[in-house]
Amino acid sequence: MAALMLPPRSGPALGTLLRPLCSWADGLLHSMAQPGTWDRFYTQQDTAGTPSHFNWFFDYTAISGLLLPALRGCGPPEPNPSPTRVLDVGCGTSDLGLGLYQDSPHPVHISCVDVSPVAIRSLHRLLQEVPPPRHPLSQLHLHVADATDLERGGFGDGNFHLVLDKGTCDSLLRCPQGPGQAGRLVAECLRVLRPGGSLLQFSDEDPDARVPFLEQAAGPGVTVQEVGHIGGMCYYVYTLCRPAPETPTIGALN
Questions:
Q1: 3-class DSSP assignment, residue 49
Q2: Per-residue confidence (pLDDT) for residue 17, from 0 to 100
Q3: 129 found inside a domain
Q4: 10 Å Cβ neighbour count for 185?
Q5: Domain count of the chain?
Q6: Which residue in 190, 120, 210 sits closest to 148, CA to CA?
Q7: Which secondary-structure segment (H or E) carries 234?
Q8: How far apart (Å, rounded) are the C-alpha atoms in residues 183 and 33?
Q9: Which of 24, 90, 116, 192 would suit a FRET pair with 145, their CA atoms being 20 to 30 Å apart?
């Protein structure tokens, strides 16, 4: 299972870090916003013929202790048996969605979305190899769709309790055309959240840079938590919530 840390926007050249994994890494930085880039990238990762997970930053086990409580915190209230709906944007061949699908003791319906059909095909093959989920009602679905235009992919308003972004916003922010597309990504993630739902962005970017971007894209209310140091890098989770509708007070009803 491979993992890659992205550099800060002001940090070392991404091409230098990708060169051991990708023969055309020097040109990757300028085309990370192009769908064909990722087809080519994941095709090269799959040259051995046996698909394997490729994780940006870290794998599922590194953050499972944070994700599982978050899953329950934003899902339907107990004892409601309906599943928690989760969207993983820009999933690639990460084990994030599959890990939640397998581990959650409560029913989850997880949708993994990526713009690359090559990545989705590889992830589908990996899905065939995993054991059944912990909860028999859990489901995992794979979709080829652009996370900056989820509506075109068939994702309507208010469908999900939780949206996960591990490295997708970062990859957009690190390419020349990226900031505008990264803003559209954030807007789409918030649009598909149910009232009271949360968007979790996992990133190695310092809060001094990420929080102003998120506040510009989505408004105030961004919270930050340090995930920890993994592979010598400090990672953070940035949380944005879609406000729940206010409940009228008794006085307001009279």
A1: coil
A2: 43
A3: yes
A4: 26
A5: 1
A6: 190
A7: strand 233-241
A8: 13
A9: 24
Residue with tokens 């003791």: 105
Let me know if residue 21 belongs to a domain: no
Which tokens is 12 given?
Answer: 């070392």
Residues 201, 229 contacting (CB under 8 angstroms): no
With a pLDDT cut of 70, the percent of the chain lying above it is 80
DSSP state of 62: G
Q: What is the CATH number of the domain that holds 135?
A: 3.40.50.150
How far from each other are the two terminal CA atoms of the chain, in whole angstroms?
61
Tokens 């070392």 sit on residue: 12
Residue 130 lies in a domain: yes
Of all residues in the chain, what percent are helix, strand and coil, respectively (each to 5)?
35, 25, 40
- DSSP, res 84: E
Task: Mention every residue, 6+ apart, whose C-beta is less than 8 A from residue 132.
Answer: none
Decide if 134 is inside a domain: yes
Element (H, E) at 33: none
Q: Is the pLDDT of residue 196 over 80?
A: yes
pTM for the model:
0.86
- Report whether 168 contacts 136 (CB < 8 A): no
Enclosing domain of residue 164:
61-74+82-242
pLDDT of residue 19: 44
- Euclidean distance between CA atoms 246 and 105, whole angstroms: 30
169/54 Cα distance (integer angstroms): 17
| 22's tokens | 């990708």
Contact 83, 157 (CB under 8 A): no
The length of the chain is: 254
Pairing of strands 233-241, 193-203: antiparallel
Partnered with residue 111 across adjacent β-strands are 87, 141
